Amino acid sequence: MSGPVGGGATGLIVALDTADRRLAATWVAAVAPFCGMVKLGLEYFLANGAPGVRALGAVPVFLDLKLHDIPNTVAGAVRAVLPLAPRMLTVHAAGGAAMIEAARRVAESAGAARPLLLGVTVLTSLDANALRATGIACEPQEQVLRLAKLALEAGADGLVCSAHELTALREAFGDGPVLVVPGVRPLGAPPGDQVRTMTPREAAARGANWLVVGRPITGAPDPAAAAAAIVAEIVA
User: Fold this and answer.
1) Confidence at 5, pLDDT banded by 50, 70, 90
2) Residues 4, 19, 29, 66: which is the catalytic one?
């Protein structure tokens, strides 16, 4: 299944949250017919590095490293992963405009093959109480909108956000930004460590371009069937 490039379509990204290269490859074989990308995060990348990404073959990869450091370091990190040809790459919007601009300049050196650069706004594991504990005295949506504006003006192609902020983001920034939504849970699935969740159908209806789903698929007895069911819910 190819993923969306706009026009209101919503695609599925399967999160491969494991350090086990063989298990990740097994999941890829099962879910590849039903998803547009697989997501590799810190757990997999730190355990397996670039060879582990290449070992998964030609499957399109969303490299979710959430880069957050001084601009020069983040620029170097983006340069280091460009040979892996990720379709999308994340940086923390809280790293500031100069950091995002530096990442964008390096990404553009890959030309037409460059990854889409996504700004991570507020993690879906954080609610208002958790934000206040970090010194941010506002509701999650207010902080998401603030960081979204910063990231997009600095050159990010899109954002990572919870489904609860989708409507506000579309109203504020239109259809242009690519919106990638983790914390998606089918009806009846446990929330895990996500606190701002929504069903696939609801998130798609609110304007998500991509839905990221991990454990409800990879933890299912039949990951292929679980992925197919989510795709059917998205397009219903």
Assistant:
1) very low
2) 66
